[in-house]
Amino acid sequence: MNPLILGLSLSQDLWSQMEAHVSEGAPEEACGIVVGEGNTAQLVIPITNILHSPTRFHMDPQEELNAFYSAEEKGFEVLSVYHSHPNGPGKPSPVDFSELSFPGIIYLIWYKQGGQWVCRGFLMNTSQSAIEVPVTIVPT
To answer: N or C end: fewer C-beta atoms under 10 angstroms in the chain?
Structure first.
């Protein structure tokens, strides 16, 4: 069984790092990678969205490769890709499914609700379906 079906656990600090990144990136989609062990995040790695688009993202290839090397050097696995939907929706979009690069990991989608950034996690697959999984902030 994929341990990520249980969701993703991360510290308040990592949550805040992602929230700051997506906030600073708006109105463009912001993106990055979350790495760790099992289903526990240890590091958030922001990556430049080279499309500079409010509705799509494509990670800078060199930054993405560097993130993978960094994770490997630390003994971590890629647990999640995060990105924002500055204008919604709060779930995977048709574009997210068509450009799915990493089935089997959690996609964290940040969006605004009531003027505040909110995040939901989804295990997505290539058949255009997604299972929502919990995203838990754990005390440090």
So the answer is: N
Tokens 């249980």 belong to: 6
Give Cβ neighbours of residue 105 (< 8 Å, ≥ 6 apart).
4, 78, 79, 80, 81, 123
Identify the structural domains of the chain with CATH numbers, from first to last.
Answer: 3-138 (3.40.140.10)
pLDDT digits (tens, 9 = 90+) for 104-117: 899 999 999 999 99
pTM over 0.90? The answer is yes
Percent residues over pLDDT 90 in the chain = 81
Q: Which residues contact 123 (CB under 8 A, 6 or more apart)?
A: 2, 4, 5, 104, 105, 106, 107, 130, 131, 133
